[in-house]
Amino acid sequence: MSDTDRPNNESTGQPVAELEASSVAELQEQLAQAQAQAAEYLDQARRATADLSNARKRMQREADDYRAAAAHRLLEKLLPVVDDVDRAFTVVPSDQAETDWVNGFRMIQRKLYGLLESEGVTTIAAEGQPFDPAVHFAVTHEAADGFADGQIIAELARGYKLNDKVLRPAMVRVAKDA
User: Fold this and answer.
1) What is the pLDDT of residue 41?
2) CATH node for 123-178
């Protein structure tokens, strides 16, 4: 078949088969570009979604940290009040121990301890325990009969933990070899 026998495009004079081949190639190239652009947009969307998720998590973590720090500060300020209430009960005269007034203060004391417990505050064991500088603060080191070296003789101020972190170390007297 000669070129004159093949069908031609009337506007360009090119054979129809050549036009179809060039159009197919052009369309395939456009499709490849569109697919590449779609893949790029999908990647950007996934990254934006991941960034947003990370930002939300970071904001939640920061808010949780802020609340924990605020609770820590408030509970630290409350501990001297708890200490004062405890000390007050050590000097109540025996003839006053069962009065309504003293019993009212015992209720206040129980509520304070209940509040501390509800917030995750626990006491640190001290008396008779081995000294641990991570949770105890040694006020004195002294010779003491009946106690091993490094054993706590007495607790001067109760220590507290907040969710397994030291809120306030226990102030203690520690035995040492003579």
Assistant:
1) 95
2) 2.30.22.10
